[in-house]
Amino acid sequence: MAVEREKFYECEVKRRRVKATGGYEPFWKVKMIADALVDNDTEFRCKSCGGPLKVFRRNIENAPPPHVEHKLKSDSEYCAAGMHFLKATDGREARPSQSPVH
């Protein structure tokens, strides 16, 4: 029996932009995973809870397209987009990650 996995095809990636006063500042931008990989982005976080994500870059025939999933089960259990949160029947409320990526 196959294990059901959480899959997100969109997340936030860390980018940088020019500040009005000079220099650069970091910011988070929502992107599709496939586009982020083509652009060589390296820092990813969940767009719902801000938690760390694991990237799956598979380019194998019949495999799912590039995607991410929560690294921490606790994030999936309390993230509004998390598989474990969506399946929960105990009335829990969504919350930000307790280990957010800054």
UniProtKB/TrEMBL annotation:
Source taxon at top rank: Bacteria
Q: Which organism is it from?
A: Edaphobacter paludis
Name of the protein: Uncharacterized protein
